[in-house]
Amino acid sequence: MLHIPSTASLKAFEAACRYLSFNQAAEELGVTPGAVSRQIQTLEHYLGKTLFHRHHKRVELTAVGRQYLAEITLPLEKIAAASARLRSETRRNAVSVCAYPTFALRWLIPRWADLYERHPDIDVQLITSLNPADFERDDFDLSIQVLAEGTSLTGMRIDKLLEVDTYPVCSPEMARKFSRPEDLKEAVFLHESPRPTDWPRWLAEAGIHDIDTNKGLHFESANMALHAAENGLGVAIGIDALVQDAIGAGRLVKLFDVVRRSSQPFQLVSSARKATRPKLAAVREWMLEAAGQPV
After folding, report:
1. Is the pLDDT confidence value at 215 over 50?
2. How far apart are CA 290 and CA 217, in angstroms?
3. Which of 10, 58, 94, 207 is most solvent-facing, going by the fewest CB within 10 Å?
4. Closest CA to 103 of 115, 111, 95
5. Among candidate residues 242, 248, 198, the one with its CA nearest the CA of residue 219
6. CA-CA distance, 99 to 128, in Å (whole number)?
7. How much is the pTM?
8. What's the rounded Cα separation, in Å, for the pair 212 and 178?
């Protein structure tokens, strides 16, 4: 009889090891940071060993944790590869899409019903990750990535999906405090770890150079920062494509007319060798159409 820890605990441990963050691991796994912490505590109790040193805003592996990770990584990868192979054999018609968590939550999922209405026969698997998709390892069909204009990737087809236009956003109540960019000196800035330069770049675009861009609250994801803004905790930098729904619903307000356009838009990346597959082509065309791009 095999005695092994729960797969949920192992998945939480492996994700936390990659990010050295329970919050980012939770974002990837689609659970709360508390759930990740509990799974790892369960694993530590099962092993009778401490796997992480917990600090105020970060974690680090103990020596035992590093050794355990090294020993279980290859078996976990083999399990993942074998499972992916069998799933691909039984679900050949599925189209797999990898997207950033915030992009999936704030742009893709709100439009998902239209895809199913048009193509009810297509089974779509949505996977979220903060890291760029690894097409060779995970055999994805499509992924959304932030890439510089003109980027080329061997064996990949790249289509511009959405511009990354950024500007400050906050709750309607808080918006009354600000009439010009200079008023942000009194604001609580909400930062997101994946895009640490958004605030200084937007302030430079607005011609503001005497504000401490490190002040404020820091969050592990864009979605958390935007959610904090919706709840009146401060001012976040929003990406236009990802905040339009919240602005339309009255949860957020765009501050000022200054918009900074990034040179790295959201790009739709797909495997060139799979381009002729009808269902993959249909999902790709739907995404481009939903984004207002030529097909």
Report:
1. yes
2. 33
3. 207
4. 111
5. 198
6. 5
7. 0.67
8. 17
